[in-house]
Amino acid sequence: MAGDWIRTVTAQTPTNIAVIKYWGKRDENLILPVNDSISVTLDPAHLCTTTTVAVSPGFDQDRMWLNGKEISLSGGRYQNCLREIRARAAEVEDKERGIKIAKDDWQKLHVHIASYNNFPTAAGLASSAAGFACLVFALAKLMNAKEDHSQLSAIARQGSGSACRSLYGGFVKWIMGKEENGSDSLAVQLVDEKHWDDLVIIIAVVSSRQKETSSTTGMRDTVETSLLLQHRAKEVVPKRVVKMEDAIQKHDFASFAQLTCADSNQFHAVCLDTCPPIFYMNDTSHRIISCVEKWNRSEETPQVAYTFDAGPNAVLIARNRKTAALLLQRLLYFFPPSSDTDMSSYVLGDKSILKDAGIQGINDVEALPPPPEIKDNVPPPRNRGEVSYFICTRPGRGPVLLSDESLALLDPSTGLPK
Ligand code: DP6
């Protein structure tokens, strides 16, 4: 270890949405859950975190920038992740640049971390999941840790529970584990993103002025006060997880949708069963559920599944592209943009679904007829402005390293944000 070199690594990690929810910890510090959970990883092209980590003998402390702003690393969750990764660091040698870092050097060396979400943090879309997964993955590569993705997931878990599921693409299960030290509480991949690539995911980012209870505080209150949670964790989730794995393996959309909706609804019921009660969904969320329920009921078999996390945003999973186009028509009928919004900023992500839905511009939205399953004599109201925007996406891949220097967030000559 000599000279003032800087070594950087940049990684990109997806976010994930649970179809069987994690809610409740049995150990707050280690972040050990009271039940298994299952998620689908979202395409990083539309929702991901990019993180650059750098090490240099010239750095005098660990520092981090999130979306360009310096933040403190003193919190227990960051400290736990940094400590666990450092403990697994191995020798690194870059002969070309004359850099050699011995295993023990990592305890003395400091790191700089810059992280950026390609979606608005304010939208309340599980940014901590992608963020901690990316932090742990990037540091593991920088420090040449030999751990596999499952072992890394057990470290990311200590940053934020749901982060452990972002170490894989496709469908992922977080096994709650039995050990007191948490060593067996980790994520495994059920199937990769190609297994069920018909699925299309539409996220409705719902306008909300309400300050939401954080997941951490909310689940702590639930564990302390809800009897329904105990029933859920012991009796309901274990059976549901088995059925969900089977539905995923067999591409059984009807069963998948039924389980996903039921589990989201039970999670919100558990929130209501908490003292004081927690309300994450709002009237718009309820209207979206009702739109999907009516449509699913009018068809022979479910077309769309819905799931809501700790906020009012809806994540809608359509069985295929054709259904997704029909879903988007319905969503745009019930939730047209406010008059000053243009379509290109109202439907984000994979915009080709808009084309499939036959919608070119705002005039096509205004001209949409009420969905055929609505048999009322008076057309149902259109709730203008209740949704901020939609994101069209699909199941996606797990973390990757980005070798293109231009994508790095830290300047390779200063180690500071570009
Ligand atoms: C409703 O992972 O954000 O999204 O472990 O305290 O950081 P902490 O909580 P977090 O909780 C996520 C809860 C959820 C359900 C889920 O993702 O499974």
UniProtKB/TrEMBL annotation:
Residues 201-401 form the Mvd1 C-terminal domain. Belongs to the diphosphomevalonate decarboxylase family. One of its GO terms (molecular function) is ATP binding. It comes from the Eukaryota. It is found in: Peroxisome. Keywords: ATP-binding, Lipid biosynthesis, Lipid metabolism, Lyase, Nucleotide-binding, Peroxisome, Steroid biosynthesis, Steroid metabolism, Sterol biosynthesis, Sterol metabolism. Transmembrane segments: none annotated. GO terms for cellular component: cytosol; peroxisome. Pfam families: MDD_C, MVD-like_N. Residues 368-382 have a biased composition (Pro residues). This is Diphosphomevalonate decarboxylase. PANTHER family: DIPHOSPHOMEVALONATE DECARBOXYLASE. Coiled coil: none annotated. It comes from Punica granatum. It catalyses: (R)-5-diphosphomevalonate + ATP = isopentenyl diphosphate + ADP + phosphate + CO2. Performs the first committed step in the biosynthesis of isoprene-containing compounds such as sterols and terpenoids. It is an enzyme of class 4 (lyase). One of its GO terms (biological process) is sterol biosynthetic process. Residues 365-385 are annotated as: Disordered. The keyword Transmembrane helix does not apply. Its EC number is 4.1.1.33. Residues 14-187 form the Diphosphomevalonate decarboxylase-like N-terminal domain.
